[in-house]
């Protein structure tokens, strides 16, 4: 009786992070890290209450302790920008995390099983493409009331078909690789193969798409908040600040809208640049075990 044996070695995703990202990608990553740090330590950098209103300082110029001045209700702009960074980053993070987890799971299941399940999943995804994320978020807010949670959930659902279609294509190609067949011959279970080998080899694609979709989610969530259906005043959020500063723009005080909008633009560009650099990487097309297989055994 012939025993089938395979020597499985960890794959490599390519060159190191700096060599693959390049100077522009590293700069984009630096901007993102800086934004995360500022959002985390924002309350330490300023003692001003972001929600404290003093109408006597409405549209006030920069002053000691208030380097960016005040908005139309006399609230400190720097404090509101730093506080708003939290919801502006956490909201898209939750959207990407939920949609990526659901979309990846659906895509891998459809690619692995194939047949009628793949056809049904593809048909459902095609139907879901008919619902734009922003419109779905507005519909959910209209039904269940405005708020960050409703907008995040609606956008996460709207992003699932886009993510699932991209991951499914890559998973179908990976499913046909010889190492998958070798693992099946050795008796490895489907769940073990998917979790320990298939998903790690798809991580470069998943990471690149997650970065790109983060920028899309940030814009969509800002749009929802701009229309008053996301984060509710007086809580600070960059999208809410852009919308709340409209009256100031008409009166010649565009600082609130420009600063908040500028923060959104800078981070969206940074995430897009980083996502494009990450997308240049390729999956390993090799198995990724944590143990070597032995004759007659499975990883």
Main features:
single chain, 299 residues, mainly alpha, MetI-like fold, elongated, disordered N terminus, disordered C terminus
Describe the overall structure.
This is ABC transporter permease. The chain crosses the membrane at residues 21-45, 93-113, 120-144, 150-167, 202-229, 257-275. It is found in: Cell membrane. One of its GO terms (cellular component) is plasma membrane. It is a multi-pass membrane protein. The chain is elongated and about 75 Å long. The longest helix is centred in the N-terminal third of the chain and has 37 residues, at 77-113. The protein contains ten helices and no strands. Helices cover 68% and strands 0% of the residues. The model is unreliable at 1-17 and 282-299 (pLDDT under 50). The chain has helices at residues 17-45, 77-113, 115-128, 133-144, 148-175, 178-185, 190-226, 238-244, 246-250, 255-279. It has a single domain, classed as Orthogonal Bundle (MetI-like fold), CATH 1.10.3720. It is mainly α and 299 residues long.
């Amino acid at each position: 009786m012939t025993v089938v044996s395979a020597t499985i070695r960890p794959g490599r995703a390519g060159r190191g992070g700096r060599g693959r990202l390049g100077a522009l990608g590293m700069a984009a990553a630096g901007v993102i890290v800086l934004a995360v740090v500022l959002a985390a330590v924002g309350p330490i950098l300023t003692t001003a209450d972001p929600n404290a209103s003093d109408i006597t300082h409405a549209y006030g110029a920069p002053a000691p302790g208030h380097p960016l001045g005040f908005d139309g209700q006399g609230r400190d702009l720097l404090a509101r920008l730093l506080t708003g960074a939290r919801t502006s980053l956490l909201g898209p993070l939750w959207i990407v995390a939920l949609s990526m987890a659901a979309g990846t799971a659906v895509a891998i299941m459809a690619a692995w099983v194939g047949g009628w399940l793949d056809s049904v999943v593809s048909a459902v995804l095609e139907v879901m493409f008919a619902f734009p994320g922003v419109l779905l978020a507005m519909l959910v807010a209209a039904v269940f009331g405005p708020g960050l949670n409703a907008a995040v959930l609606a956008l996460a659902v709207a992003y699932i078909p886009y993510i699932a279609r991209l991951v499914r294509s890559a998973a179908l190609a990976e499913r046909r690789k010889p190492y998958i067949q070798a693992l099946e011959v050795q008796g490895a279970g489907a769940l073990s193969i998917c979790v320990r080998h298939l998903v790690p080899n798809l991580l470069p694609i998943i990471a690149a798409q997650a970065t790109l979709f983060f920028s899309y989610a940030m814009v969509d969530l800002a749009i929802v908040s701009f229309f008053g259906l996301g984060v509710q005043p007086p809580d600070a959020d960059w999208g809410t600040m852009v919308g709340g500063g409209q009256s100031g723009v008409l009166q010649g005080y565009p600082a609130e809208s420009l600063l908040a909008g500028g923060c959104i633009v800078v981070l969206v560009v940074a995430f897009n640049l980083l996502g494009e650099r990450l997308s240049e990487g390729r999956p390993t097309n090799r198995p990724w075990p944590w143990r070597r297989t032995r004759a007659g055994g499975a990883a």
